[in-house]
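pls design
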């Protein structure tokens, strides 16, 4: 009960805007303003008890307490590292972020892309933080975590070695916002080591709340360059990488100064004219801030002499800053994967870019109720969470020249990086899209964003839950008086003469059933028995939890996944099987609850208001 109450409470909070960037949820229930004011009042510097300056916060294996890599590490505040630390120096720039001793280039590339637009940066890095005015050794950052924005508080004690920051740092030694941002992200994920290795898609999504699509460049679609340009126009963030063929190749340099197993951010896609012929160019950045491509169109290459000066001036390039241009044809040949993070409407306030429409659904695959397995599990596949999506408008400017409405579909798993410490890996998940009632879905798939308006109701929406009593089925022969003792044994598990009373359908308030009332119950149970026998296909005397879904529906109750999960939790045994007694108990209770709701739903709005005593009476009934 407490779990489903939390879920319903969270949904209510979302309706009130809780979990948005404007009303972020305090991570670990730590309120930044309260903690800061407390420190200022006491004249102390904040020390975070939930992410202490200890070895456990560094890691568990390669950065564990016994690792040689963590020997000599000291946690120091910025004021212990330089005389005049600053949070941000002359604005945050992508060229200011440098990777440290941690293999988190994917994160560094994501942070670098974040600085392309101050609007993005300010959503993650709140205003008003400094080492001067009201300094208390406390800072905070905001990240998107599985559908909600959370506000993460940290102290400014950072891991150092030999007086230098160990991990992410700025090219400007007095600047510390990026190092503090990395620490906050490490806290969310459990440790610094949990940030080791990953894809830029993860950082993109956690910094923006966007949804990412990926393209293997050895199979690049013919319209990909135009798609990249359109993505930049939409304010999307992009990254790319070169796959490594073995673990020994991690972040190793290859021919022409490209790095395998390394994440790059993409910052531009332009078409120029070389000797009058169009050439497509891609601009990218190495998060190291150095080691640049040395092939065609690299810094100071002769190809730049082939274009007009005014065209060259528009491309904003400079030497030895980690950022470089290369031909699109070389890009798809040299690189392995392109990742595009498409931003949700709330991330874009500018009217100069087009906006996606966005819908988000929260659910889970729970054993016994909604974990139906893949398509090979024909009997249970349909019990997986399902949603209907209606695409009502076509794209204004389709990048592939085909009419249609682009839709991106994505699934996410929670707390995957935290599980690394315990040897847990990602689960295999997926989705299927089907044509419904003549509608078609285009093939640019990855769910949460669409270029045009969509109408996406959950297929088993609770507000649409209804009761339609099943038609009477085959009745047992004989009069109620003749069959009553046998039926009482079947339903109650005891002899009728043992003064056992049934109160589920009593009408006179006596708390007991009369003969007529018991007859009504008897007829109901006969009907439920037919339903039960129909779905107990192996004649085991029980139904599986997945069979229960169809049985409840046939009995006349249309319920959503939340209610079905509660039913399975309450009535199923450890093997997720439900016997006949539990089945009858469940259906009679459902009928009663629907009738009670109908009594209170006087205005037929589908919602009711109860005071505390009414709620207790119903809950304890």
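designed seq:
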């Amino acid at each position: 009960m407490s779990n489903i109450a939390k879920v319903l409470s969270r949904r209510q909070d979302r309706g009130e805007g809780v979990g948005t960037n404007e009303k972020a949820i305090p991570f670990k229930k730590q309120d930044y303003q309260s903690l800061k004011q407390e420190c200022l009042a006491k004249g102390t510097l904040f020390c975070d008890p939930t992410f202490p300056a200890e070895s456990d916060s560094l890691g568990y294996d390669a950065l564990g307490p016994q690792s040689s890599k963590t020997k000599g590490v000291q946690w120091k505040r910025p004021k212990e590292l330089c005389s005049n630390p600053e949070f941000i120096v002359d604005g945050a720039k992508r060229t200011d972020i440098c990777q440290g001793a941690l293999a988190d280039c994917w994160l560094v590339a994501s942070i670098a892309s974040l600085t392309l637009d101050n609007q993005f940066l300010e959503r993650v890095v709140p205003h008003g933080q400094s080492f001067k005015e009201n300094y208390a050794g406390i800072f905070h950052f905001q990240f998107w975590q599985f559908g909600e924005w959370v506000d993460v508080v940290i102290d400014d004690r950072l891991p150092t070695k030999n007086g230098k920051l160990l991990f992410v740092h700025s090219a400007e030694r007095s600047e510390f916002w990026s190092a503090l941002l990395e620490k906050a992200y490490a806290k969310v994920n459990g440790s610094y080591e949990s940030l080791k290795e990953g894809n830029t898609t993860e950082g993109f999504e956690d910094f923006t709340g966007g949804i990412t699509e990926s393209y293997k460049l050895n199979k690049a679609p013919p319209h990909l360059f135009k798609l990249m340009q359109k993505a930049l126009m939409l304010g999307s963030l992009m990254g790319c990488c070169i796959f490594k063929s073995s673990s020994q190749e991690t972040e190793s340099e290859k021919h022409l100064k490209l790095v395998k197993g390394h994440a790059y951010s993409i910052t531009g896609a332009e078409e120029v004219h070389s000797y009058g012929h169009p050439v497509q160019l891609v601009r990218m950045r190495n998060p190291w801030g150095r080691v640049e491509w040395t092939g065609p169109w690299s810094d100071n290459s002769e190809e730049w002499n082939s274009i007009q000066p005014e065209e060259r001036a528009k491309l904003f390039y400079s030497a030895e800053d980690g950022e470089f241009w290369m031909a699109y044809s070389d890009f798809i040949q040299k690189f392995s994967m392109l990742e595009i993070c498409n931003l949700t409407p709330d991330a874009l306030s500018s009217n100069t870019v087009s906006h996606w429409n966005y819908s988000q659904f929260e659910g889970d695959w729970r054993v016994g109720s909604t974990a139906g397995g893949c398509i090979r599990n024909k009997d249970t596949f349909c019990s997986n969470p399902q949603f209907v999506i209606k695409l009502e408008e076509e794209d204004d400017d389709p990048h592939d020249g085909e009419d249609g409405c682009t839709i991106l579909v994505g699934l996410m798993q929670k707390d995957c990086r935290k599980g690394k410490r315990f040897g847990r890996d990602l689960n295999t998940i997926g989705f299927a899209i089907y044509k419904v009632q003549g509608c078609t879905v285009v093939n640019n798939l990855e769910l949460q964003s669409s270029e045009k308006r969509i109408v996406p109701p959950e297929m088993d929406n609770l507000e649409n839950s209804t009761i339609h009593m099943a038609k009477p089925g085959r009745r047992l022969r004989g009069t109620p008086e003749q069959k009553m003792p046998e039926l009482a044994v079947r339903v109650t598990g005891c002899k009728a003469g043992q003064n056992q009373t049934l109160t589920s359908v009593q009408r006179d308030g006596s708390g007991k059933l009369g003969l007529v009332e018991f007859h009504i119950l008897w007829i109901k149970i006969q009907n439920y028995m037919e339903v039960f026998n129909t779905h107990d296909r192996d004649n085991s005397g029980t139904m599986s939890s997945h069979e229960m879904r169809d049985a409840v529906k046939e009995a006349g109750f249309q319920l959503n996944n939340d209610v079905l999960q509660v039913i399975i939790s309450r009535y199923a045994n450890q093997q997720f099987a439900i016997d006949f007694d539990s089945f009858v108990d469940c259906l009679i209770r459902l009928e009663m609850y629907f009738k009670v709701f109908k009594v209170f739903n006087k205005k037929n709005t589908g919602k009711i208001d109860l005071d505390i005593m009414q709620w207790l009476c119903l809950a304890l009934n």
